[in-house]
Amino acid sequence: MNDDPEQLDKHVEDLLQDRRPERTPLPDEDALRARQTAAMLRAAKPGAGLPSKEFLERMQGSIHDWVGERSAQPDPASRPSRRSLLLTGAAGIAAGIAAVLGIQQVDKAAPKTARQLVENGSWKPIKALADLPEATPVAFRSGAIEGFLIRQGQEVKGLSGVCTHMACILNYSKFRDRFECPCHGATFEKDGQPTNYSSPLSPLPSLQVRVEKGQVQVYTV
Amino acid sequence: MREDQTTGAAVASSGKIVPLPHVDAPHGQDHLTWAYQTHVTAIYQYIYGRVGNRPDAEDLTAQVFVKAINGMRNDVSVPELRSWLYRVAQTTLADHWREYYAEGAGELDDDVTQQPAPRENPEAVQRVDALLATLPESYRRVLELRFLRGYSVRETAQELNLSETNVKVLQFRALNRAGRERGRPS
Q: Quick check: A75 contacting B, CB < 8 Å?
């Protein structure tokens, strides 16, 4: 049962048509690697690989049920107070809560706005100011924060990179000069304001950013 | 281009992200549920990038969440939750490939052992570009036409001036060669 071009092409056709390939046992490692490579190539096709709205909605309901079932079981190790502390806030970030914190000050002081997105975090270096292009958002991830840095001269603004609709990670389109959600098409201007969505969305929260000795730092956990 | 700082419990326990006013999880869900749900898209994309088709990606994503929710503590921080989900995704993928080829499949996909990229899609495209660049012209061409441009075997045959049988042979050789290139330590 050697692998052959016909058999492999059948697998490739299935991938291209977004069908589940038949799980036939393979003769060797090369045959497996060829199929893993085919999967990787298939996923790189423009537009491929986003979950459907139906699937996301189904998962939403299922996860709710699974978590509920699990919580109903006795769990001596669980500490509800800490759990709500950590998850309440962090889930908040992931959900991209509306928190317009204003343009961040580029100074050496610790954050002083009364209500910041992150408390008791720390400043994490992200990249050198010199490496940031003027006015073009650059994506980063640090700790629990997914965001964009936008340089304006010697100052840098930080914005959450999580869509305020259903928490997908936003992309920046250079061509259209705005943030775009790959999931359901929401878009945001570079100041974080939502633009086109059918239902009203919150703007993207700002992040605390400072420049220290030429290094751009973000306040994060 | 981007930083991917190590995340972990030490970082998470030294700080916290405070809830802001009107921070209610959407749709009246509890926060643990919401924390899991915010990762569905990322895990789906991670898996899709490795199985390349929707039905498998949906099934495996659901499996990952069932396992993750049953195996995880309730007092987890989001960075811990994130890295736990990716670990479960990796073992779930290894099990998936074992159905095709049992021996040693767990260590076959090198990508699975690597730290996941922060944004799956652009990373996937970059990985593919780098892989294609290692191939001879004819191999690269057939894979580009079939996978990136979605040509049928017939269309590819016309474009390359080959018979359909030859296209399948060329595709076979190209995928096998690319598979071996991927296995090579970089």
A: yes
On the question of pLDDT at A203 being above 80, the answer is yes
Per-residue CA distances from A76 to A80, A84, A169 (Å): 11, 16, 35
Helix, strand or coil for residue B140? helix
In chain A, % helix, strand, coil (3-state, to 5) comes to 30, 25, 45
Asked if residue A184 is part of any domain, the answer here is: yes
What's the pLDDT tens digit per position in A79-114? 333 333 233 333 333 333 222 222 222 233 333 332
* CA atoms of A151 and B8, how far apart (whole Å): 28
- Could you tell me how far CA B78 lies from the centroid of its own chain? 20
Instruction: Using 50 as the pLDDT threshold, list the residues of chain B that sit under it.
Output: 1-29, 104-115, 117-118, 186
Euclidean distance between the first and final Cα of chain A, in Å? 53
Domain of residue A28, residue span: 5-43
Beta bridge mates, A220: A122
CATH of B118-186, one of 1.10.10.350, 1.10.1370.40, 3.40.470.10, 1.10.10.10: 1.10.10.10
Confirm or reject contact between B17 and chain A (CB < 8 A).
Answer: yes
Q: What crossing angle do the helices spanning B40-51 and B78-98 adopt, rounded to 10°?
A: 30
pTM tops 0.95, yes or no: no
**Residue pLDDT, tens place only, B135-158:** 999 999 999 999 988 899 999 999
**A89 neighbourhood in chain B, CB within 8 Å:** 16-19, 23
A126 contact residues in B (CB cutoff 8 A): 3
The CA distance from B87 to B113, in Å, is 9
Distance CA B101, CA B125 (A): 26
